[in-house]
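Below is a filled-in request sheet from our internal design queue. Each sheet records the structural input a requester submitted and the sequence that came back. We keep these sheets so that new team members can see what a complete request looks like end to end.

REQUESTER: design group, bay 2
PRIORITY: normal
MODE: inverse folding
CHAIN LENGTH: 309
BACKBONE (tokenized):
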């Protein structure tokens, strides 16, 4: 195991993603934020488009706690999975500027599961605990040739190979290995520092077969109602975009058709059609078109506006 640790860390020193901003801080809030953003969102988008801007607006847990949910959602706009932002905000309000330092305490907070709690403790506090995300899980399953392994088995294996002297670098190395070398398809075994001891390398993909995803396709019809350079929006009442502003739904009328676009959101594959509206009955929120980007608006609604432009 000593040799494996040494080889893995040497590879990490040479090839790891050391420049990621959340790896160059011991600020627990910054690490926590990055982990929440990185769930379901690609590293480059988080690093370039969201993480710095969010921290500029909410530099501490305290500023986040004092902000309105509307403001937080507006800053999260476009990242999707808005429940993450709501949980982040709720946690900030609960912890009074101090995240707990214990995994079990972190697990009691909204939206923090085993992965996030262990990542905060290991990456922020160098605690000697395993961290298992999808990348690390793939490496572990292949390295130990685990067939149909359940999460617990993978976490247990991760515990057995932890480098107790350098747990933080060890876990980050495994994460980068999964992201850069032990790829879901066509892993680059010849470049892998673990290849000599990897039990699954000859049939690597067999150990990480995933079920084909099933998608739900839907058609959605939205109305565009603009008056005095303001657009009519509504707070969504469906779970998909709860607390976000969306265009009002309409019955499609052929002669009012403006255009259409496709949109993917979680398991949904949406065909969105837009129609002009001459008037609208019911409550709406008027958003000035020049302030559109500062409102809590979903990426679907942003796409609609782009089409309108
Ligand atoms: S040798 Fe291949 S399958 Fe094994 S951990 Fe490395 S990249 Fe993955």
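RETURNED SEQUENCE:
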């Amino acid at each position: 195991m000593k040799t494996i640790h040494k080889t893995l860390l040497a590879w990490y020193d040479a090839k790891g993603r050391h420049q990621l901003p959340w790896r160059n801080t011991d600020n627990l809030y910054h690490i926590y934020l990055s982990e929440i953003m990185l769930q379901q969102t690609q590293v480059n988008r988080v690093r370039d488009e969201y993480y710095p801007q969010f921290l500029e607006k909410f530099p501490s847990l305290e500023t986040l706690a004092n902000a309105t949910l509307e403001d937080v959602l507006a800053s999260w706009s476009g990242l999707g999975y808005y429940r993450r932002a709501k949980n982040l905000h709720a946690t900030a309000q609960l912890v009074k500027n101090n995240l707990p330092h214990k995994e079990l305490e972190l697990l009691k907070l909204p939206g923090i599961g085993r992965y996030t709690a262990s990542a905060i403790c290991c990456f922020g506090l160098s605690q000697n605990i395993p961290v298992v995300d999808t990348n690390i899980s793939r490496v572990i399953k292949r390295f130990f040739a685990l067939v149909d392994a359940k999460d617990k088995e993978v976490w247990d294996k991760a515990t057995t190979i932890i480098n107790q002297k350098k747990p933080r670098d060890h876990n980050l190395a495994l994460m980068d290995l999964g992201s850069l070398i032990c790829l879901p398809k066509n892993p680059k075994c010849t470049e892998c520092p673990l290849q000599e001891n990897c039990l699954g390398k000859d049939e690597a993909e067999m150990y990480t077969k995933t079920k084909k995803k099933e998608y739900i396709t839907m058609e959605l019809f939205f109305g565009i109602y603009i008056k005095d350079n303001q657009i009519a929006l509504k707070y969504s009442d469906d779970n998909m975009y709860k607390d976000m502003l969306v265009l009002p739904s309409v019955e499609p009328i052929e002669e009012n058709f403006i255009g259409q676009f496709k949109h993917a959101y979680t398991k949904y594959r949406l065909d969105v059609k837009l129609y002009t509206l001459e008037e609208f009955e019911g409550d709406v929120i008027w958003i000035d078109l020049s302030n559109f980007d500062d409102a809590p608006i979903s990426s679907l609604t942003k796409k609609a506006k782009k089409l309108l432009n």
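SHEET NOTES:
- The first strand starts at residue 216 and ends at 224.
- The CA atoms of residues 22 and 31 lie 6 Å apart.
FILED BY: M.R.
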